Amino acid sequence: MARIAGVNIPTNKRVLIALTYIHGIGPKHAKDICEKNKIEASRRVNELSDAEVIAIRETIDADYTVEGDLRREVSMNIKRLMDLGCLRGLRHRKGLPVRGQRTHTNARTRKGPAKAIAGKKK
């Protein structure tokens, strides 16, 4: 089992798909990494040599922010918005949608389960 950026990569999947298991690497970055290291997209992880795995690991370490560092960076950005007191920060603090979505009927994922309002019966 290959271990890249602190994540165990599934061995029986194609390299392009397996790299997306790393937080911060999507399909496009996975394709770029494979092209940079001259690895065919159809190859499986268990077919890679140790040198190729090391090359992938070094490419990711050098060029991409992934896993813990990325999570820390995102959380620090959200914390900065909250400390500033801007609208986006206030929406994060209240647990409401941040990007202008309606909340009258939707936004159940962000707001949580519906709460009954006493005395609203008609």
Give a verbal description of the structure.
There is one protein chain. With 122 residues, this protein is mainly alpha-helical. The chain has two domains: 2-67, Helicase, Ruva Protein, domain 3 (Orthogonal Bundle), CATH 1.10.8.50; 68-111, 30s ribosomal protein s13, domain 2 (Irregular). 48% of the residues lie in helices and 5% in strands. The chain has helices at 15-19, 27-36, 50-63, 67-84, 87-94, 108-111; strands at 2-4, 7-9. The protein is elongated, with a radius of gyration of 21 Å. 13% of the residues are buried.
Biggest sheet strand order reads 1-2
Helix count, per DSSP? 6
User: Can you summarize the main beta sheet?
Assistant: 2 strands, antiparallel
Assess the beta-strand content as a share of residues.
under 5%
Specify the overall morphology: elongated
CATH topology annotation of the largest domain: Helicase, Ruva Protein, domain 3
> Can you tell me the CATH architecture of the largest domain?
Orthogonal Bundle
Number of DSSP E strands: 2
CATH top level assignment of the largest domain = Mainly Alpha
Sum up the structure in keywords.
single chain, about 120 residues, mainly alpha, Helicase, Ruva Protein, domain 3, 30s ribosomal protein s13, domain 2, two-stranded antiparallel sheet, 6 helices, elongated
SSE order and pairing:
Elements: E1 2-4, E2 7-9, H1 15-19, H2 27-36, H3 50-63, H4 67-84, H5 87-94, H6 108-111
Antiparallel strand pairs: 1-2
Helix pairs in contact: 4-5
What's the short story on this structure?
This protein is mainly alpha-helical. Helix content is 48%, strand content 5%.
